Amino acid sequence: MHRFYVQDIDTADQVITLKDSIAQQIKNVLRLEAGDRVQLFNGTGDEWEAEISRVGKNEISTTLISTIKTIPEPSTKITMILGLARPERIELAIQKCSELGAVKFIPVISERVQGGNSGTPSPQRLKRWQRIAIESAELSRRAVIPLIAQPISLMEAVNQTLIKQNILCMWEESSDESKSLRTALKSLKKHPDGLTALIGPPGGFSQKEALSIQETGAQLISLGPRVLRSETAAITVMSAILYEMGDLGG
C-alpha cells in the first residue's frame, strides 16, 4: 500500500484532501482510482489507512478508515551534524541516515567547507533536503520526519547541542585521547535519550577545530585507519550506533 506524508491531518474531519504533487502522483503516476486504499502519516508518529473516495482534476479526496500501528523509532534519538560539502554528498547522507532513523540534521560551516561560505545552502536547497528526508521516511515506513535545521557555524552547533546530549566527533587524525566508536558508545549509559554524531566536511576538521570541540566536552572518535568520504562516514556511524544500542534487529 502506498504511503504519503500529509503535514496537517485533522481526524475530526474524516475526509482528507490531497493536493499538489501527492495528487499528481496518485492520479498520473500510480493511476489509483476511487476505492483504492493508501496510508497517510503526519510526520510526528501517527498513521492512518484511508480510502480514495474521489479523483478530481487537481485534488484527491480520501476518507480515513482506521489508525495504523507504526513501526518503533530507534530507542536513541540521533542527531547528525554534517560539515557542508557538495550537495550530492549531503543529500546521500540525509537520504540514508533518514532511512536508518536519524531525527535531525544540522549543516555546519567549518574551515574546510567546500566552496567556503559561498557553499552555504540556499533556501531552495534546504527545501530539497527536507523533501529527501520526507521521501526517505515514506520509503522506510517511518512515521516520523527528520528535521533539516538551518545552517550555523560549527562551534555554535556544538555548544547548542551539548546542552542536551552527548556529542561524538569523528576525526580522522590521531590523538592520544581519541576513542574508537565502540568504546565511546559502551561508555555511555545503555540508552541515552539523545546522541549527536559530528561528521566533518571533505578534508575533515582542522586540528584547531578538533581541539576546540574537545574542550567543550565532546569526545573525539576514530573510525580506524581507512579514510572515508564524509557521506560514507555518516552512514557508517549511524549504523554502528544503532547496532550498539540494539536497534538493528535486536
How would you describe the overall organization of this protein?
The chain has helices spanning 20-29, 87-100, 123-140, 154-162, 181-187, 207-215, 230-244, and strands spanning 3-5, 15-18, 37-41, 47-55, 60-67, 77-83, 104-109, 147-148, 152-153, 166-170, 179-180, 194-199, 219-222. With 250 residues, it is α/β, with parallel strands linked by helices. It folds into two domains: 3-67, Hypothetical PUA domain-like, domain 1 (Ribosomal Protein L25, Chain P); 77-244, Alpha/beta knot. The strands form two sheets. Strands 6, 7, 8, 9, 10, 11, 12 and 13 form an eight-stranded parallel β-sheet that branches. The protein has a five-stranded mixed β-sheet with strand order 1-3-4-5-2. A hairpin with a 4-residue loop joins strand 4 and strand 5. Helix 2 runs parallel beside helix 3 and helix 5 runs parallel beside helix 7. The radius of gyration is 20 Å and the shape is elongated.
